[in-house]
Specification:
Keywords: Transferase. GO terms for molecular function: acyltransferase activity, transferring groups other than amino-acyl groups. Pfam families: Acetyltransf_7. By secondary structure, the protein is of the alpha+beta class. 35% of the residues lie in helices and 31% in strands. It has a four-stranded antiparallel sheet with strand order 1-2-3-4, with helices on both faces. Strands 5-7-6 form a three-stranded antiparallel sheet, covered by helices on one side. It starts with a strand and ends with a strand.
Length: 150
């Protein structure tokens, strides 16, 4: 049977699945345990994140396999389920953010996360800065994507 990935606006009924996937994906990517409790992470997702950002999730048979949070100028979160990476889910979520953007997007990724850097670079992002202004206090890279005018 052919399974399709469906991208929908985030709904709170998917909160626990989404947060579990997000935390596991992030841990695998950077090797740091999440600083916040599971409950506060759910609260953040349900009550804070969507006030400033569009939050979309990718579903595969009602299972949450990805999340993206973005506005017209930046992507603040993008995580894909560890078992579903490399299947085009991240690219589909990124495409949605690009379509809704002002023609320019920025995002940060951890320097330690080489897989994410390759992914963003393959999808048209270029490095424009470096820093470590994050909760984890890890070195990070600032990327920028600019819509090409054809």
């Amino acid at each position: 049977m052919d399974h399709e990935i469906i991208i929908i606006p985030y709904e709170s009924k998917y909160a626990e699945q989404t947060v579990k996937m997000w935390r596991e994906s992030k841990y695998k990517a950077i090797g740091h345990k999440e600083a916040h409790s599971f409950e506060s992470h759910v609260y953040f997702l349900n009550h804070i994140l969507h006030k400033e950002y569009q939050v979309d999730i990718a579903l595969w048979d009602e299972n949450v396999v990805g999340i993206i949070a973005y506005n017209e100028s930046e992507i603040i979160q993008l995580y894909i389920h560890n078992d579903y990476q490399g299947k085009g889910i991240g690219k589909s979520l990124l495409r949605k953010a690009k379509e809704q953007s002002s023609g320019r997007l920025t995002l940060y990724t951890f320097e330690i996360n080489k897989k994410a850097q390759r992914f963003y670079e393959m999808n048209g992002f270029k490095i424009i800065g470096r820093g470590h202004e994050n909760e984890e206090n890890l070195p990070d890279i600032l990327y920028e994507w600019i819509k090409s005018v054809d």
